Amino acid sequence: MFIKAKEQGCLPINQSLWRLTDTAEKLPVAQLNSEKQLEDFIVERPDMLDPNWMLIGRQVPTDFKGIVDLLALQPDGTPVIIELKRARTPRDVLAQTLDYASWLEELESSRLQKIYESFSPGADLEKDFQARFGTPLDEEALGNDHLMVIVAAELDTSTERIVKFLSKRDININVLFFQVFQGNGELLLSRSWFVDPSETQVAVSVGEKSVQWNGEFYTSFREGHAQSWEDARKYGFITASGGVWYTRTLNMLNPGDRVWVSIPGKGYVGVGRVTGTSLPIEEFTVTVDGVETPVASAPTVASYELAPGDESRAWFVPVEWIHTNESQDAFREVGFFGKSHTVAKPKNERWLNTIESLKKKFGVK
User: Fold this and answer.
1) Are the C-beta atoms of residues 125 and 192 closer than 8 Å to each other?
2) Are residues 316 and 279 in contact, defined by beta-carbon separation less than 8 angstroms?
3) Regarding beta strands 79-84 and 147-152, do their DSSP bridges make them parallel or antiparallel, or are they unpaired?
4) Per residue in 233-284, pLDDT tens?
5) Do 186 and 289 have their domain in common?
6) Helix residue ranges per DSSP H, 178-242
7) Does residue 151 share a domain with residue 13?
């Protein structure tokens, strides 16, 4: 994939697909019959956008006489507004998307339940969310950190500048480009994000007044069948699995970064320095009796045997621990920062206060 030079005020994502047999055959570009057809495909297979999003609404009327094309929830309960470009100019789509976000920010959970019932008659949003993600739906999260996604084939240059401007200032907005190709009587679809999704996911303000980031990373460690804090303490790593929403923010960590680890529902259990970059299970090794051993072959409490190439497989980041507690000795106080994101760069006063308390508790300078 490469980005083509600007033409007639637009910045298309120009992709090419090739069929490789005895020779290489370039597939011709095609078009869908309508953008409604693309919307139908997305409703049928929401993982076309993100495998960890839960679609909860389609053609949702707002109180401002607008209609949200698609509405979804992320695993932490924060909403995703999805707008298809259709026949509108890109700048109009951008303005409407921001307007919808302002409407959704004040929406109560009971109203969201009604939206979900219209999308899936007879369904219970809280019950289905719990079944899908294994955690209860946090009503507070509904008003925080909305992600706005515009689905389009191209952007005009002014919209491109606006999206970049907003994303650099921690406004969670992104563009997903789709392109269709013709091959053997079939339509093939490719996609490409305008901004790396990990960048729009990792900067968290949690609805509070934003302050300058202090350089300390927050990490959520989900204990369970696929993750063990005991393993992480013993071998020196943090890990995530279950899909790209959970794993891609690990890519934000670099050697030397300091991470504070929290187990959701329990509290903070450790702090350490990152010593390497994120690696999938098939490439990550740990030291067992002085021998470098694949983590999938090491004696562990959790089961990390996920198939290579599977999007839900585990990823690991090596860490040299400065201080750790056992999970039953996790430390937390009222008002501590918490989030479901695997890695975050919190920019609010709650995070600063949390760090100060943790430094005293863990004896860290």
Assistant:
1) no
2) yes
3) parallel
4) 999 999 998 888 888 899 999 999 999 999 988 999 999 999 999 999 989 9
5) no
6) 197-202, 229-235
7) yes
In a shared domain, residues 26 and 137: yes
Give me the residue label for tokens 């909403």: 79
Range of the domain at 266: 216-362
Could you tell me if residue 205 is inside a domain?
no
- Asked whether 156 and 89 are in contact (CB, 8 A), the reply is yes
Residue 160 and residue 286 share a domain: no
DSSP assignment letter at 120: S
Q: Are residues 291 and 188 in the same domain?
A: no
**CA-derived radius of gyration, the chain:** 22
pLDDT band at 4 (very low <50, low <70, confident <90, very high): very low
This prediction's pTM:
0.71
Q: What is the pLDDT of residues 13-51, one digit of tens each?
A: 566 778 778 888 888 877 777 777 888 888 888 888 888
Residues 161 and 241 in one domain: no
Q: Is 63 helix (H, G, I), strand (E, B) or coil?
A: coil
Q: Which two tokens stand for residue 85?
A: 């470009």
